[in-house]
Amino acid sequence: MAFSAKQLRALRRQPDQRHIRTRIANGRELSYLEGWYAISEANRIFGFDGWSRETVESRCVLARENKGTFLAVYIARVRLTVAAEGTTVIREGHGTGEGRGISPGEVHDIALKAAETDATKRALATFGKPFGLELYRGQRPITAEKPLPSLPPIARDERGPVGFHPDDTTPIPRPSRFYGRRQDLVTHAPRLIPASPPTDSPTRIGKSSLTLAEPKRLRDKEHLKFVATQSCLVCGRQPSDPHHLRFAQPRAIGLKVSDEFIVPLCRGHHRELHQAGNEPAWWEKLNIEPLEVAKGLWEQTHPNAAGVPVSAATGATEAPS
After folding, report:
1. Around 294, how many Cα atoms within 13 Å sit in the side-chain half-sphere?
2. Helices (H) and strands (E) in the chain — how many of each?
3. CA distance 109 to 107
4. Beta partners for 57?
5. Which residues on adjacent β-strands are paired with residue 32?
6. pLDDT tens across 24-78, in order?
7. Hey, what domains does the chain have and what are their CATH numbers?
8. Interior CA angle at 189 toward 186 and 193, to 5°?
9. Residue 310 CA neighbour count, 13 Å, CB half
């Protein structure tokens, strides 16, 4: 046997349970070791200068772009060379990697590195247990679990648990889900259930009236349709996509800017703008003032609403406060 006795003992050990990760794929829970941990174990067992990795083949099998988002999928084949007391051991593995993002260069780089790492882990797994060979059985190794300590029974009376604060409970469903149907909850925990049924339209606080007011984000479907009928600001093509000027208002998670700030762009220039990254610089290069154009379009569909906002729910104008 080429490996030393110390290396053989290390190759017979299971990986540290703390470094085993799980993920869901096609409805199944898969266990795996992270790439950095597998390489660290190889350095520990074989030595930093006792093994090497070579990418024999790498190829992009899928590259796709959709609305400014790029996808790349790579496959790779990796060859490992391990020096063991005058003998050279060679193992190979193959793997795949996927990358997604808005930068095509970064997407391809991520996908290629992921494929090489996957191939390296599969090649290392041929050396035994510390590199996750047992994980390829389709389930994580079964380990003995310590039984949970038994808890004393909870004393109760007609009002509920004795000696517990009302907040010392598990999360309770919303009142609208069980009001009028779970009378036992109302009986045993009257302080946790409102005395009257919930209203259909709860009172909402207008964020524009707060000390640090949020900008209003108006919505008007008719105005969107109107802008879509206009010619592209760059090339004059029709029809156009209504483009929201992202720099017109502060960013918010999952929210576009107000429909006041939309301009018409053809599909090609719309895609080009989303790929540009710096939107103000893109408009400045074309010598176009998009905010002025957006203001003029808004005034065309709202000629009598100067200073009067549009309802975010219905699109109808509201009386000024």
Report:
1. 20
2. 9, 9
3. 5
4. 77
5. 21
6. 767 777 777 888 888 888 898 888 888 899 999 999 999 999 888 999 999 999 9
7. 5-137 (3.30.390.80), 216-301 (no CATH)
8. 55
9. 21
